[in-house]
Amino acid sequence: MDTKEKPGKESYDQWHDDPSNWRGGIFYYNKKDKRLFPPKRLRSFGWTVNFANPYSFLTLLVIIILILAIVIYGK
Fold it and tell me: 5-29: buried (b, 16+ CB within 10 Å) or exposed (e) per residue?
């Protein structure tokens, strides 16, 4: 697969089903997958974070800051 070519559904499904991409069975870590929020192992339960993507930590930090701001300043 060319690095500029977007992976297809088959690639996403293979990565998702590969146990080596799940750390501790719950944390998704796949450097090939550029998505920030891939589906969880049980797909009907929403999304998880791809911890191999460097932007995932930034995104989580922003979400945590927003939640804290709402809790602290929303009173």
Answer: eeeeeeebeebbeeeebbeeeeebb
Single pTM value for the model: 0.73
CA distances from residue 25 to 34, 45, 52, 62 in whole angstroms, order as listed: 20, 15, 15, 25
Residue 3 binned pLDDT confidence (cut-offs 50, 70, 90) = low
Residues 70/62, Cβ–Cβ less than 8 Å: no
* Biggest alpha carbon–alpha carbon distance for the chain: 52
Whether the Cβ atoms of residue 59 and residue 50 lie closer than 8 Å to each other: no
Q: How confident is the model over 46-69, as pLDDT tens digits?
A: 888 999 999 998 999 999 999 999
Between CA 28 and CA 15 the distance in angstroms is 10
